[in-house]
Amino acid sequence: MLLQIDKDHRRFKKIVTGKIREDLRKFITRGELLGREGRKLISIPVPGIDTPHFRYGDNNDAGVGSGPASPGDKVGSDGEGVGPGGTEPGSHILEVEVSLDELADILGEELQLPRIEPKGRHNITARRDRYSGIRQSGPESLRHFKRTFRRALRRQIMSGVYDPQNPRIIFERRDKMYRSWKTVLKPQSNAVIIYMMDVSGSMGREQKELVRLEAFWIDAWLRRNYEGIESRYIVHDVRAGEVDRETFFHLREDGGTRISSAFRLAQDIIENNYAPSEWNIYLFHFSDGDNSSESDSRECCRMVRENLLPAINMFGYCQVASAYGSGNFINVIHEHLADQEAVVTSRVNAKDDIYDSIKTFFSAGR
Fold first, then answer.
1. What is the DSSP string of 149-210?
2. What's the mean pLDDT in 45-61?
3. pTM flag (> 0.70)
4. What percent of the chain has pLDDT over 90?
5. Are 218 and 361 in contact (CB under 8 A)?
6. Residue 309 CB: number of other CB atoms within 10 A?
7. By Cβ atoms counted within 10 A, which residue in 2, 94, 133, 214 is the most buried?
8. 285: pLDDT strictly greater than 70
9. Cα 112-114-117 angle, rounded to 5 deg
10. What is the CATH number of domain 189-362?
11. Which residue has the higher pLDDT, 361 or 53?
């Protein structure tokens, strides 16, 4: 019975995964999913799945259509309904919990994203106990039942005391086998993501929502590829400062924009905390493309080329549409950094563009 339940559970998970694949683009653009995120799981409403259920009866002849009634009698109460009767079946929506790793795998398969090959050496070596051996002593909690049963059965058969008509297996101390462990050293690939965002007056609530959705899926994919991830957050107008995640997505300021201030702070954070030989470093900058001057935009490109690119895996620039921004910064990047493979740009004018933006950033598997 347990095996059948396992099969049914796997089949149900396969159905759920298929539904998520079908509607992946829609899920990527739904901001409310972020509010359903737990520690390692995310709740996803999946329509179109009938929830399995039992139907009980009382084994008598009573049922639909039985009981006293005459032709023409009304069915149900005399109360007035609200609105006209529908003609279509109702949709069934089931909320399922999916691990972030599963969600990232679905994302990677659908977008055909290659696995990321970490660069540099591994800077953390974790000690883990692996149960890979067998021994004849140990705590009862680690007793290997199958091996113990086989040894006892073999001993009874060889000694001639085993009775097939009364198949009782009596364990002796010498039959018992226990799992043994050894400590293994497992290198962990570490990565840091530094998010930078313009919070000047031209970046409104809609723009920040686009950034929040994009950052969530960037996070999900990178965390699937690395054992350890650190995230740092920088906001800037004409000056830059480091903030926590909550402030990053909700802070709004007025004033102008000097993008180079954010790049300079990112450089300081890398130099003081993350040696390029030990860390995989990803930089993502979000802006509406407005900057204080053409000279500062050129200075940004110089900083990226000379100071940042030698130390990082990728520099991603995502330009979100705004009615107030000039949108010119992405053109300056294309002009001055077009020859740099580690520089990737994308435009997100609406939520539907996030799907293609993620694919643009990670299609090379950096």
1. HHHHHHHHHHHT---TTS------GGG--EEEEEEEEEEE-EEEEEEEEE-STT--HHHHHH
2. 56
3. no
4. 25
5. yes
6. 18
7. 214
8. yes
9. 170
10. 3.40.50.410
11. 361
